[in-house]
Amino acid sequence: MTKRIPTLLLGVGILLSSAPVLAHGHSHGKPLTEAEKKASEGIFDNKDVKDRALSDWDGMWQSVNPYLLNGDLDPVMEKKASQDGSKTVAQYKAYYKKGYATDIDTIGIENNIMEFHVGKTVNACQYTYSGFKILTYTSGKKGVRYLFECQDSQSKAPKYVQFSDHIIGPRKSEHFHIFMGNDSQEKLLKEMDNWPTFYEYSLSKEQVVHDMLHH
Question: Is the pTM of this model over 0.90?
Fold first, then answer.
């Protein structure tokens, strides 16, 4: 069955997401440079980190949490366990169950407006860029979070949002981890255990699994 692409309700009218429903593989855009590959692995010079616009995450995105919970990502967990050895399959599943946990089904992003779909409830807000933060993890690897803030105090959408997608400069995102909260950006930066993860809405379950196994 073909998935119906949700509409983006942007207050000034109803716009259909332009993302096509793809029957087969999907484009990954221009190939990564060596520096971009290294950055995606958490190795980069701080001076190479650049600002990014929210448009880098434009589109309609689906949570991968349901795929984990119903066992579709078991092959991914098995591969991680066999390659790494530091965790069993069960331990990996527990780790990702905590990491992917979210009640948000889909996120739509367009014209600096983000929509959060939870069942039939949609909360939206216009966000402005608040810069980026470079984090160094206990492993010694680094990551970058791009910070955005909701401008409508009446909105029920998260006030603070941070994106992490293994990219450190302007480039269209292919999947992302998102951190959301209403307290402060500083508090969110300390969150290391829960990072809801979203892939393009147009991807089938099989394509999401393939992407995780091979990228």
Answer: no
